[in-house]
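WP5 quarterly update. Target: Tyrosine--tRNA ligase. Source organism: Polynucleobacter duraquae. Length: 410 aa.
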Amino acid sequence: MTAKPEQKYPLTPEVFAALEVTKRGCDELLVEADWIQKLAKSQATGIPLRIKLGLDPTAPDIHLGHTVVLNKLRQLQDLGHTVIFLIGDFTSMIGDPSGRNATRPPLTAEEIAVNAQTYYRQASMVLDPAKTEVRYNSEWCDPLGARGMIQLAARYTVAQMLERDDFTKRYRSGVPISVHEFLYPLMQGYDSVALKSDLELGGTDQKFNLLVGRELQREYGQEPQCILTMPLLVGLDGVDKMSKSKGNYIGISEPAGEMFGKLLSISDELMWDYFTLLSFRPMAEIDLMKQEVAAGRNPKDCKVLLAQEIVARFHSQAAAEKALEDFNHRAKGGVPDDIPEVNISGAPIGIANLLKAAGLAPSTSEANRNIEQNGVKIDGITVADKQLKIEAGTFVVQVGKRKFAKVTLS
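Structure tokens (predicted):
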């Protein structure tokens, strides 16, 4: 059974405006001509399109890199379309092998439930919860059973699976590929069938899986979804994609001041990618800022606007203004008003151990590195001696530009 050809709908200025919103910052839109017709049909009929984002809750916290696709969902949501936030509670138990050269351990049902709750709560800082359809793919995957799974598997070939780059590399290198790993893209594709998706979003590393959904919809007689891939956000180091394991990330639940400072630390060049992928400002406004910077405007002015927008989104406008005030205060050598107070016993104590105990360094080796880089101050005086012993008392300890604590040592 194949889907009947769709009639053509008029291409209005509103359709092309929606296309521009769709393509902002995207890596690839497949197939653009199909998407234009879907937009035209939606405008002509008044029926919203169904836009799907599937996320396996593999970790409980998300960072700004994860919000790139969420921002795109929100932009499309604001155009009036239906956003489906799909939690892959079933597929998480398989484990997505995308981009990996080894099998990924599956999660337990308990881990998935906890992570999914936290993930959606954080995603709701970007999405409009009242206009978001939340679904779990166990709804249709569990009832499939063994018979249904075999029938689904019959609709895709091994040769098609081996077109995926990571599978091909592993096969040629003699690295084992378990049969259950082939089921992951199949089940993700079947999600699109179950939800009758018009558009599915994902990172560039998800392209193969998104295309499987398109092919399976054809197999089931549905109009194939379009796919939209978004680039992976580069982290604070300006080199690798944002990642907790790389330590180059900005968590959306971080304190406002920490988030603000990290955003101001990105390079002037990287700032424009952040504007495109993270800001909700119109592209015309961003382009104007670029022209002004090229003509001599201080790029820091623009970076401050970006940082305030992001902090306001995940905290509040008041928090964004306070973060800017604190940043300016620190830049003049001042100390923020609301620094944490820490009580430590064991005087006298080595400076590296004090930094670790105060939560200003994750380890004594990291503390020593900060001292070597002249990044540690006590009451405004730079510490140069890694062997320094600190006697009892109360003092302000600073590490780098953003970490402060009022320490009482006894």
